[in-house]
Amino acid sequence: MSxxxxxxxxxxxxxxxxxxxxxxxxxxxxxxxxxxxxxxLATERICHxxxxxxxSLYILSTYxxxxxxxxxxxxxxxxxxxxxAGINLNRLKRLNRLSYTITSAxxxxxxxxxxxxxxxxxxxxxxxxxxxxxxxxMVSLCLIFGGTWREIPPVLxxxxxxxxxxxxxxKLAIDRIIANSIVMFIAASCALGxxxxxxxxxxPVIIITVSMLVIPGIPLVNSVRNLLCGxxxxxxxxxxxxxxxxxxxxMGIYIAVALFVRNxxxxxxxxxxxxxxxxxxLVSFTASVSFGVVFRIPPKDLIWAGIGGVITRIVLILxxxxxxxxxxxxxxxxxxxxxYAEFMATVRKDPSTYFVYPSIVPLIPGDLFYYSLIxxxxxxxxxxxxxxxNCLLTLLGMSIGFVLSFTIAHYIRKFRHxxxxxxSFVKEDENESV
Length: 434
Known about the structure:
This protein is mainly α. It is 69% helix and 5% strand.
C-alpha cells in the first residue's frame, strides 16, 4: 500500500493574510509597550482600508482574536497569544508608523508579513548601555529621594545586582510575581548588608531608589487607561496583575527588613526628599533621559524624554507652592505629562506612550510605598495610614490626570477614525459608480 502523497500547503486568501498580519502586528505592539486602545484603532484602520466587513475584535494584553468577512462573503478568523515582555518604544514607534503606511498605501496582502519583519528589525542599545542608563536613572532618583554621596555607591551596586537578576529570571522564564519577591528580597538584604559594613548611609533611600526598577508603574498607567477608556475587562485584569506584582515586591522588602533590621539599623526614620527646585529640575531631566534609554528610545529623541520629565517637575513645583494637597498635586503633574505626550504624538505622528512613559518618572511614589510597608513592620498605625493614604492619593491623582488627557485624545482619535472610515466608503462608492 503506497503512502499518500504529501499535500501542498494551502495558499492563504487575501482576507486571511490581512487578519493574520493585524493579529501579529497587534501582538508585537503590545509586547513593546502599546496600550489596547492603540492596537484596536490600528487594526480597525487597516481592516477598513482592505475592505474587511463585519469586523470582530477581542483584544486583551495577553490575547488577540480578529475575525471578518471579505467582499465575496468568505469569513476568516485569527488568534494569537501574547507572552510577557518588556518595553521597546523605538520598535513601537516603527510599528505604529507601519500601520499608517499600510493604511494609506495598501500594499498587496502577501507583502504584509515581510513589511512587519522589516519594521521589527531595529538597532538596539547594548546591555552595558542599558545598565549604565539604569545606574544614571537610579542616581538621579536617589538625589530626588533625599540621598547624598554616601548612598550613591550602594545604589549603584544594588542596581547592577537587580539588572542581572532580572536578566537571569527572564531567561529562566520565571513568573514576574515570584521574580519580584525574590529580587527585592535580595536587593533589600544587599542594601542592609552594605550599610552594616559601612558602605552607604540611609537604608530607606537606597531601597526606595532601587525599587523603582521593579515597580510596575507603566503597566499601572495602561491598566487605568484601559479601565476608563472603554476597555474595562482588560483594565481590570491588568490592574489585578499589577496589584499582585506590587504586593509581591513589597513582600520581598518586608521579609528582608523583618530579618535584618531589628539587630542592625533603625529603618523607621523617614528621610526628607530633595527640596532645591533647580536641582530637582536637573535630576528629573537626567532621570527621564536615563529611563528613555531603558525604554529603548533612540539617542536623537532622548531630549524629548528629558523635556517631558522637566515639564512634569516644573508643574509639581509650581502647584506645590500653592499648598495643594497630594491629590491635586499629582493630578496636575500627570495631566501635564500626558498633555505633553499627546501634543508630541500629534506633531511627530508617534504613539503617545513614546513620550508619556519617561515623562511620568518623577510621579511614581516609591517613597510613599516603602514607608507604608515600614509602618506595617514597626506596627506604627499612624505612619502606615498617613503614607498609605498618600500613596493611594498619588495613584488616584495619576489616574485622574491621565484619564482627563487620554479621554480627550481617545475621542479625538475616534472622531478622526470615523471620518477616515466614512471617507473610505464614499471613495469606494464613487469608484463603483464610475
